[in-house]
Amino acid sequence: MASVSRRESRAGWLFLLPWIIGFLAFTAGPMLFSLWLSLTHYDMLKPPRFVGLENYREAVRDERVATALWNTAFYTVLHVPSQIVLALALASLMRRAGRAAGFFRTVLYLPVMTPPVALAAMFLLLLNGQNGAINEFLGWFGFTGPNWTTDPAWVKPGLVLMSLWTVGSTAVLYLAALTRVPLERYEAARLDGASPWRQFWHVTLPGISGTVYFTVVVNTIASLQVFTEAYAMFFGARDQQSKEGDAALFYVIHLFQEAFGSLRMGYASALAWGLFVVIAAVTAVQVRLSRRYVHYEGERS
Amino acid sequence: MKRALVLLGLLLVAVAFVYPFWWLVSASLKDRAHVFDNALLPAPFSPGNYVEVWRAVPLLTWIGNSVVVGLAAAVAVTLSSAAVAFGFALFRFRGRGPLFGLVLATMMLPAAVTMVPVYLEWHAIGLATTQVPLWAQNLFGSAFYVFLLRQFFLGLPSEVFDAAKVDGASPWRLFTGMALPLARPGLVVVFVFELKNAWTDLVKPLIYLREAQLYTLPRGLKAVLDRFGEGGEAQWELVLAASTVATVPMVLLFLVAQRYFVRGTVTQHVE
C-alpha cells in the first residue's frame, strides 16, 4: 500500500506543478524582488542603487501620496456601503419577483459585461454637468445637478454613482444567498407578528451575513485598488496630470504613474508595499469585526 | 398588490440599468451636432460614424488582437487551473491542506503589489512590449478558478474515479478521459469568465503594449478616447461608436452564456 500512496502523492504534486511554478515565478519571487527593489533607486537604465529606507521616507512626505490615500479612502467609504445596500435591496426585490426574477437578473448583470473603458467614455457624457442625461433627469425634479466630471468636489461622488451601474454581480450573489435562507424561519417570524422590517433584521440579515461579509471584504480590497475607470476618464497619454486637479488621483494611479510614467521602479515598489500594508490592516480589522457580527449557522458555507 | 409594487419597482430599476446601453447605441448613431442631445432616437440617423472611426483607427486589428489574446488567456487558464484543481481534489498527499490555503491566500493578494516586479521580469527576458504577458501567466492556473474547479471535481461521484484507479488507469488518463469531460460545465464557467476578463482589461495592455498595432480593444479604445474625446478633437460620436463595438461582443457572450456567468458569480462565496 505504501507504494500506492507514494504514487498517488507523486501524481498529486505533478498536477500541482503548474501552480507551484507560477506561484514562485509570478507571486513569491516578485514579492521578494519588489521588497528589495523598494530599498533601491532603479530607473531601468542604470543598475539598482541601494538607498535603504529612503523611498519609504519619501512616500511619507509625498503630498501626492497623501492626496491619493485620501481620495482612495473617500471613494472606498462611499462606494462599498452604497454598493452593498443597493445590491441587497435589489436582491430582496428580485427574491419577491417570482418567475420574473430571471429577466431582471439578466438586465442587472449586463452592465457588468461592459468594458470599463467603454463605461468611462459613456459616463463622461452621461455625467456631464451641462448636458448629461443624469443632470437632465435631476432637472425633472427641480434639482440642478453638479458638474460631476469637472468640479473636484463632485468627481469622486460621480465615480461612485457610476460604479453603482455594475452592482449586478453582487446583487446576483445576494439573490442566491437569499434563496438559501429557509422559508420556515420567515413563517415562524410572521407567526410571532414580526413586521417585514423586523423580519429583514432578524431573519434575512443573519441568514446571509456570511455572504455580506465576504462581499464587504472583497469589495473593499478591490476598491482600495480602484484604477481603470478613473484612469480612463481623467488620465491619459498626453497629460499625466489629471485636469480636474487631483480629485481622481487614486493610490494605484499614482503608483502606476511613478512606475511606468517616471520609471521610478524602486519608489513605486515602496508605494506598492505601503498599499499592501494598508489593505492587510483593513482586512485584519474586518476579520476581527466579523467574529462579532457574522453568523454562519444558516449557511451551507 | 404587493407583488405588483415589487414588479413596478424592479421595472423602474431595469429601465435605469438599460438606459445607458440605449443611450450609447443611440448617441453613436447621431451626428456631431446632436451627440449631446440625449434624444432616445438618433435624428438625423448617422451610421457613418462607424465607417469614419473604422478608417481613423485600426479597429479590425484591435478586435483581432483581443480575440487572440482573449482565447489564449481563456484556454490557458482553463486547462491549467483544471489540472491544479484535479490535483487538489483527487489525490491525498502531505502538505495538501496548507498548500490549498496558500492558493486561497493569493486570491486576497493585491495585484498592485506584483505589478512592477512582474513587469521587470518580462522586461528581463525581452517580452515586455509584446502581447505575451497578457496571457502567459494564465498557463500556471489562477487561484479563484482553481478554487471553483476543485468544488466541481469534489462534486463528482468519487466511485467513478476509484473504479478507474483500480482498473489501473493512469492519473493523466483519469484527468483527460474522465475528469475533464465530466467537469465540462465548470470548464465553461472558467472559460467565459476569463474571456470576459481578458477582453475588458485595460491595466495589462496599458503596462505592456506600446505599438498601436499590438493594442487590444480596450487599449485602442483608450487611445480613441484620448484622441477624439475630452482633451482631443471632440468627436465624441466616434468615441461612442468604438465603445459600442467593444461592448456588443460582451453583451452577446453574456446572452449566450448567462447561466455560466451566474454560476461562476454565485460560486465565488462557498467557502
Q: Would you give an account of this structure?
A:
The complex is a heterodimer of chains A (301) and B (271). Chain A contains 13 helices and two strands. Chain A has helices at residues 2-37, 54-61, 63-95, 101-109, 116-126, 133-140, 152-163, 168-179, 183-191, 196-224, 228-234, 251-261, 265-293; strands at residues 40-41, 49-50. In chain A, strands 1-2 form a two-stranded antiparallel sheet. In chain A, strand 1 and strand 2 form a beta hairpin. In chain A, helix 3 crosses helix 8 and helix 4 (101-109) packs antiparallel against helix 8. The longest helix of chain A is centred in the N-terminal third of the chain and has 36 residues, at 2-37. Chain A is globular, with a radius of gyration of 24 Å. The two termini of chain A are 35 Å apart. Chain B has helices spanning 2-28, 48-56, 59-90, 96-108, 112-124, 143-155, 158-166, 171-182, 184-200, 203-208, 217-228, 236-267. Chain B is built from twelve helices and no strands. The radius of gyration of chain B is 23 Å and the shape is globular. Chain B has two domains: 1-46, no CATH class; 58-267, MetI-like (MetI-like fold, Orthogonal Bundle). The chains are: A mainly alpha (301), B mainly alpha (271). The interface between A and B is large, with 98 and 96 residues.
